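Fold Annotation — chain and its backbone

Fields — amino acid sequence, structure tokens

___
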Amino acid sequence: MENVEAPAVIKLLGEHAVVYGRLSVAAAISLYAEASMEKSGSEYLKIRLEDLGLEGTFSNEQLKKLGADYEGRKSIVEYIEEERNIDRKLLPFATIAARIAKELDMDMSGIDITIRSHIPMGKGLASSAAASTAFAVCLIKEYSERTKKVVDSEIAIDIARDGERIVHANENAGKIDVSTSYLGGIVSYSASAGAKKESAAVDFKIVLIDTGPKKSTAETVGHVTELYNRNRGYVEGIMDKIDKCSNIGLHAIKMGDTRLLGRYMFIDHHLLSQLGVSSERLDMAVEAAEKSSAYGAKLSGGGGGGIAIAITDKESQLIGSLAKLNMEARAVAITDKGASAVLKARKLQNA
């Protein structure tokens, strides 16, 4: 059995502002989605979603037709509607496989892939992006082993993003999350520069704080869009300030200045609160982190609930303080190992 692990993703700085062309900084953390491949004598590709108790089988013919339908789509929403005979939870993975089958001319018969995740779902940790990335890399790894050909990273990331496009019914989905889960470590992203893996001079722990249920990212992004349409100047001013936080924070990461990074995480959170994407419990978590002498804390992801993050060298003290607020918290590490590590290992073996 061959396994590919793809890490969860947090946003250190810049979420929401990135939609408006500003810089965002993300990090891969030590929680993983996993795709495991086995070979069988079947004529079909079998996809099994272990956590959801779902599975589906697809012939090469079906996949190539699905790939053609996807390539010729007028819109993601229309494509999803046209393929409603495929379970909505399986469609992201079937679409990834279909694109690989069509574009790389890969025979999918006899491949069984099981996807499982140790990443909490619906909390803002990019669980669906990690699952799509692990699945795509698992198939690309098999393709490379068969053909001795290397798939370019940009193509691999774009293929993995197909899963996120389906999950969120949005052509632009997954740019940051998939890139970070694929590359690992600290990743910066802007519309002008794209995704770039950054060097970090400091190894710091992250405390994940579960503040409870969250609104969908589509809802919080939509809220900011409405605010932007009503008062463009006000929102642009906040976006510029968030962009400053991202740039200074990224500089702090490169210089190993944890205190400077933390200071701008606090500022970033308060700016996001002004945009209306925080929540009472997110604000409570950040306040608790500040009282516990954390270097910095903020919401992570779309907001409206879900995960807050803090950087601190007093993890136990902070986790204890949060328990009094009925918030579960745990320390995780930033991992430099993205899903692409298995492809790099294969490339070195073939060199």
